[in-house]
Design goal:
Blueprint: E1 14-17, H1 20-23, E2 27-28, E3 32-41, E4 48-58, H2 66-78, E5 84-87, E6 102-110, E7 113-121, H3 124-138, E8 143-150, E9 154-157, E10 164-168, E11 171-175, E12 185-195, E13 199-209, H4 212-234, E14 241-251, E15 255-256, H5 259-263
Parallel strand pairs: 7-15, 9-13
Antiparallel strand pairs: 1-5, 2-5, 3-4, 6-7, 6-8, 10-11, 12-13, 12-14
Length: 272
C-alpha cells in the first residue's frame, strides 16, 4: 500500500491571479482584504482628515469552489480588490506580527568559539536575522546560530562605546573589549522604583558595568533621562524618584548589538 506523500511548504505553489479559471479548486493563500479611505472634516481645524479602513472579505485557507469563485469575481468587478493569492495547499493559520521590541540573547559559534549577542528584536526569527547580519559584517570565517533566548519585560541600557574593529591578515575582525581598562560584566538587575514617595513598581534591566553599584548608577541615570523627557513633553516638572535593587546577577554575554541596528528590521519600517 502506497504511503501518502508528506507535504510541506517546499511543495507549495503560490500564484496571484484575477482569472476565475486559474483560481478554481485552489485555496486562498492569505486573507482577502478590502481597503478604502474615508475622508471627513475636522470640526476644530476644518481640515480634511483621511482614515484608511479595512474589511476582511475571506479568510485564508478557504477552498475556492464555484460559489466562492463567484463571490471573488464580484468583488474584483466592483473594484474592492484586484486579485487574490492562491495556493495548492490549505494553510489556515497565519503568523502574528509583534511590533514591539524585546531583548533576546543569541548564541553563535564563530571559529569554534561560542559568543553571545544581546539585542532587541520582535521575534525569534528576527533575532536570528539580526544576529546573522551583524556577524557577517563584523567577523570572519564560518558560524552557526545555536541558541536564541527571549528576555521578556526587560530593558537594555546600552553603552556608547561598544566595540572596535581591527585589520588582520584575514580581514576586518571584531574586538570584544572596551577601551576602558576596568573589566566589566553584564548584570541582570531587578530594581524597585519609587516615584514621589507614593508610586512604586519593579523593572528588569540588563546593564554592562564594572560592579553592581556602577550598574545602579547607570540605571539611575537612564531613569532620570526618561522622566525628564516625559516631563518636558507634558510640560510638567520632572518627578523625584528613588531606586533600590531587589536582585542582581551576572549573565554571560560577548556583545550588545545597538538598538539602531535592530531598527532596520522593525516591521513598521516596511510591512509586517
Amino acid at each position: 500500500m502506497a504511503k501518502n506523500k508528506t507535504e510541506t511548504r517546499k511543495d507549495e505553489v503560490r500564484f496571484t491571479t484575477s482569472n476565475p479559471k486559474e483560481m478554481l479548486h485552489g485555496y486562498l493563500a492569505k486573507r482577502v482584504v478590502k481597503t478604502w479611505v474615508d475622508d471627513f472634516v475636522d470640526e476644530e481645524t476644518s481640515e480634511v482628515v483621511s482614515i484608511e479602513r479595512n474589511e476582511v472579505l475571506f479568510d485564508a485557507g478557504k477552498l475556492i469552489d464555484n460559489d466562492l469563485q463567484a463571490q471573488i469575481m464580484f468583488h474584483i468587478t466592483a473594484g474592492d480588490i484586484t486579485e487574490v493569492e492562491v495556493s495548492n495547499q490549505r494553510r489556515m493559520a497565519f503568523l502574528n506580527c509583534y511590533n514591539g521590541f524585546t531583548p533576546y540573547m543569541v548564541t553563535a559559534q564563530i571559529d569554534l568559539k561560542n559568543r553571545k549577542f544581546l539585542m532587541y528584536a520582535s521575534s525569534v526569527m528576527m533575532a536570528h536575522e539580526i544576529a546573522t547580519d551583524f556577524i557577517e559584517l563584523n567577523y570572519t570565517g564560518g558560524f552557526y546560530i545555536s541558541q536564541i533566548k527571549e528576555f521578556s519585560s526587560c530593558t537594555i541600557i546600552e553603552e556608547n562605546k561598544l566595540k572596535k574593529l581591527k585589520d588582520t591578515e584575514f580581514g576586518i575582525k571584531a574586538i570584544e573589549e572596551d577601551t576602558d581598562d576596568v573589566p566589566k560584566e553584564y548584570y541582570k538587575i531587578e530594581a524597585n522604583i519609587t516615584i514621589e514617595d507614593d508610586r512604586e513598581y519593579s523593572q528588569l534591566f540588563i546593564v554592562k558595568a564594572k560592579d553592581v553599584e556602577s550598574a545602579k548608577e547607570d540605571i539611575n541615570h537612564w531613569l532620570k533621562q526618561k522622566f525628564d523627557k516625559e516631563a518636558k513633553e507634558k510640560q510638567e516638572i520632572s518627578p523625584d524618584f528613588n531606586i533600590s535593587l531587589k536582585n542582581a546577577s551576572t549573565i554571560p554575554c560577548s556583545y550588545t548589538i545597538e538598538k539602531d541596528f535592530s531598527m532596520a528590521y522593525h516591521p513598521n519600517a516596511d510591512e509586517c
